[in-house]
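Tutorial, part two.
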Amino acid sequence: MDDLSPRTFDLIEHSRADHARVVLVDWMLGNSCSYACSYCPKSLHDGSVRWQSVADVLAFYDLLQRHYAQLRGKRVWLQFTGGEPTMHPQIIRLLEAATACGFQVSLISNASRTLRFWERIAPHLDSVILTYHNEFAELDHFRSVGRMLAERMPVHLNVTMRPEHFDRTLDETQALRDAMPAASITLKPLRVDFDHDLFDYTPAQLRIMAAGLPAKAAQTGAMPRGTMTVQGTGLPRRAVRANEFMIRGENRWKGYRCNAGIESLRIKGNGSITRAVCSVGGEIGRLGGTVTLPVAPIVCSAEVCACVADILITKSRPSGQSPERRVTGTG
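Running the prediction step on this input gives:
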């Protein structure tokens, strides 16, 4: 990709129509983690937030089932995060209950738990997102867990790309690609303090991440999200990966109508519930308390759409609205 200048779109929609019928619940169960990566804020791994209670989690399962599945014909897909969600002391019970509700379930995990543990929970998972943090991860163990899961379900790999270890990490990623030829892989650009600004990558590194590592085989099974298809004046329709929006600085949709709350929810570790990770529209309730679930899209108020989960939500520019001025670069 030679031209990394940003483009303006009128519509960003899911490349697969069935993804628009999924409400993806990004659910942070707590913030304890087995790793403490240098680029990760302490609030995401220091154990300062207690694990959520089973009773509160199960009660919210009931609300999700009524509001989205029964009344609106949506598929509820829970995506548990942390911290490291597999460290929740009752994670197996929570996964079993989600299966009983008819939900689909993913975990975003560093894969650090034993292979035996992953074999135990695999029947209650529909897909996994495994993040390779080579500051702590053991390549052989990560590869073993990923290979076992890839034989049973779709696997997506996020590989965190530190600029100072870029070439080494790229070599390790190729080893993971060879072990899991059907897995999708994102070479994940890191943001300073998980905020708006990317780390100091070279133009060559940005191009490598934007190009990615294509799968070598077809992957079977469902994933809750994939690529987005874009439309804009004078632009051809094309599929775009989330990290490409970020690398090109195109993740700026202030004033657009966004399906946050219709296609997504965010449950924070402290129990606060919002439409999306960005918290557009503010808190809509709390786990264990009263919650008002959304019934309509919302106008984006964020300067930058900084989270992959939020980027992968349908958005449209209202007719007659002038595009926001774009900031060329890596915003």
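Residues 323-331 have pLDDT under 50 and may be disordered. In part three we will examine how such features are distributed along the chain.
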